Design the sequence.
């Protein structure tokens, strides 16, 4: 098998090499193709930090989508996990020609205190150990054929050993014109639009918290599809009604009331976890109530409040059993992802609620 390597290394040459390799057979062809392809797909190390966690998450989500599109398996690890260091380093060792391509996303949970003068001796030692561990990880991945994303949910860390494969991205809070422009771009991504004047109004009301601003825009886009965001429309969906109980919300989910479902964006992670568990239980109750009579069904239904059951049956009357089974499978899947730290409980709930 022969290639003319004297030809200038151009895009056309690379294309001819790939074409020739694809037409050939045997392990040698695969190895040569892998080497050439690797030159154009150098695994990267991304260091993402800054106080604006929402924009940082947007950036990381974009990276994850790109990796998944390349059939790269994404593994999420948190420094709150037990044995997180060993878990991350084991992927750096998977560096043979036939190893599965992975992207490890390591989330560093923020310290409760940012000022080192306020930290105890134990906390200072923990921070020092964590920094040394991160430098060991960066060194290991700098020689590995695996991707790494480190998301520091606090201030930027000064880390040694960063090489050409390392890219740093810091997300500080936006102010003034930059913030107004971001709001307008985010509204466009939600399928709507907002004027600069209205962007200023929403900032006066909600400050520069991009997560909060994004939630307000999302709610308005859901409640007023294909309509421009105005100050009046924002005001109509931005307040959380105290009388808006769990039962009202659950009814809105079953009956697909978009204005009601939009309140999901108001929940913190703790409340989202409770409502996700409640929703899984509610769907389970409806499915069991529709199943054939048996001893297990009788025991389960004996513990269900009749008033609660009547409401659930009324709300789900127009939903087929097949759809409910799909709901239950999706809810369990999202809950498992949340338990493995792949997504948060809030994101799990949002993904389900806005997909049905």
Sequence:
């Amino acid at each position: 098998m022969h290639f003319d390597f004297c030809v200038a290394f151009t895009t056309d040459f690379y294309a001819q090499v790939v074409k020739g390799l694809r037409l050939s057979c045997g392990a040698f062809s695969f190895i040569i193709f892998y080497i050439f392809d690797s030159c154009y797909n150098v695994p990267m190390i991304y260091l993402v930090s800054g106080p604006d966690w929402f924009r940082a998450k947007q950036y990381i989500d974009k990276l994850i989508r790109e990796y998944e599109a390349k059939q790269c398996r994404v593994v999420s690890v948190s420094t709150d996990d037990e044995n997180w260091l060993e878990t991350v380093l084991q992927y750096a060792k998977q560096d043979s020609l036939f190893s599965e391509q992975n992207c490890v996303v390591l989330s560093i949970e923020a310290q409760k205190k940012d000022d080192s003068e306020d930290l105890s001796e134990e906390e200072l030692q923990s921070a020092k150990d964590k920094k040394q561990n991160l430098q060991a990880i960066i060194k290991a991945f700098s020689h590995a054929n695996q991707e790494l994303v480190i998301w520091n949910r606090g201030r930027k860390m000064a880390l040694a050993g960063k090489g050409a494969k390392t890219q740093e991205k810091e997300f500080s809070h936006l102010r003034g014109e930059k913030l107004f422009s971001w709001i307008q771009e985010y509204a466009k991504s939600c399928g709507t639009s907002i004027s600069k004047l209205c962007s200023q109004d929403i900032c006066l009301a909600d400050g520069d918290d991009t997560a909060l601003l994004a939630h307000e825009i999302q709610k308005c886009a859901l409640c007023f599809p294909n309509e421009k965001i105005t100050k009046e429309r924002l005001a109509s969906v931005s307040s959380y009604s105290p009388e808006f109980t769990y039962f009202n919300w659950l009814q809105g989910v079953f009956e697909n009331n978009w204005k009601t479902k939009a309140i999901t964006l108001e929940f913190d992670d703790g409340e989202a976890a409770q409502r996700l568990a409640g929703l899984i239980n509610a769907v389970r109750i409806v499915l069991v109530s529709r199943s054939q009579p048996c001893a297990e069904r009788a025991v389960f239904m004996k513990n269900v409040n009749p008033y609660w059951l009547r409401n659930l049956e009324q709300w789900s009357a127009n939903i087929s059993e097949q759809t409910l089974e799909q709901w239950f499978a999706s809810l369990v899947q999202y809950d498992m992802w949340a338990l493995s730290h792949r997504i948060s409980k809030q994101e799990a709930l949002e993904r389900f609620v806005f997909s049905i």
